[in-house]
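Appendix B, record 7
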Amino acid sequence: MKLWGGNYSAEPDRAFWEFNRSFGFDRRLLAEEIAASAAYVRALHRAGALTAEEAGKLDRGLTEILVRAEREPSYLELDAEDVHSFVETRLTELLGDLAGQAHLGRSRNEQAVTALRLWVRRATDSLLSTTAGLVRALVAQGLAGADAVMPGFTHTRAAEPITLGHFAAAHAWGLIRDRERLLDARRRLNVLPLGSGALAGTALALDREALARDLGFEAVSENALDAVTDRDFAAEFVFACAQLQTHLARLAEDLIWFSGPEFGYLSLPEAFTTGSSLMPQKQNPDALELIRGKAARVDGDLLRLLVLMKGVPTGYQKDLQEDKEAVFDAADTAVASVTIMTGVVSGLALNRERMAQAASAPEMMAAGLAVALARQGMPFRKAHGLVGSLVAEARRTGVSLQQAAARLLPAQAPAVAAQLTALFDPAQAVAAKAARGGTAPEAVRASLEAALGLLESRPGIP
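Structure tokens (predicted):
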């Protein structure tokens, strides 16, 4: 059943009909389309456009369609143009001409964007929930390793000692920002377009505020033309997914390296690795590699949406049918990636001895040594240069930086030379970074608890 065609003398070209159809993918909006249609029926009844009996029949018919679709996959096998025509066709089978009254004053333009907003809202809430689980997993690992000393890196080179908890907190806070983005986008998303008609509004006396409350929207759109054109909410959601996926890719990259035999700081849970078809010894980090790779996929979804949006004039255009697959793919990919990453993080095993050994490399204490010299009164740039010369001397002579400092510093900075054992102890170097946000165990625990507190204060799902 087509929702149009009265002025046509023949059927569409078959190849074009298949090209034009979207039911193959927008059937995912069925629950949202049914919910919006049922709410619209109730709004029509409140406006006096439907009797109570008619509204009741339509509501029961819509419920039956959803129940049958969920129970009988074959029920969805229909040559429908889209999810909207599918619902009206099935409703007509049940109720005859009364089914058409559910469409009174309503355009597919507003139906499409209303159903998509409802779907994205549900997807946002799902992603908020799964991401919260990953934050909790990182917090748990971080608290367990708050005093586990390891190297920190800049430019992919060992830089200064940090703790595993500091590392976990860094990733947890990135995910907290991802959730804040989703929460912020959800507010703009949660605006009702239904009641906009095709572009000019409706002539029916609909109570759009009541309709918004019925569907859980916080506001109604203020301009019908904007409402049917707008896909900002979809682009915002997909951007939030892309940024989240970028953070997941960064975490995956870190865990891939830190769990490799060259580092050995962590062991990955076996259930999230795969073997080699040739080399029997291998346990490959495929779960993490796929998460890293799927960041490119979600970036592509975002680009697809943005290019789509920039090419259409104001008002609904059929181009906008192409919005859904990008949104669906970004949501599916992000939720799956977060779920898998949560399993990986929860199952990580720490090798504290290996981390501590790597963190004890004397050159990693160079910055701390320069600061200690400056705190004893030496201008920092001079202290920086002095320590740099000690590094060069150590490399030239084949001794450690601590040994070079022990030989050369007493003449220039005897007070600092007397502290070399403490200054080259990675645990004490970490403990010295106790300011808020630092890597000292107490600061790390405070940071992790703050992340958890913010998570609990803004769960995200009303």
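Remarks on this record: Residues 108-144 form the longest helix (37 residues). The chain has a mean pLDDT of 95.
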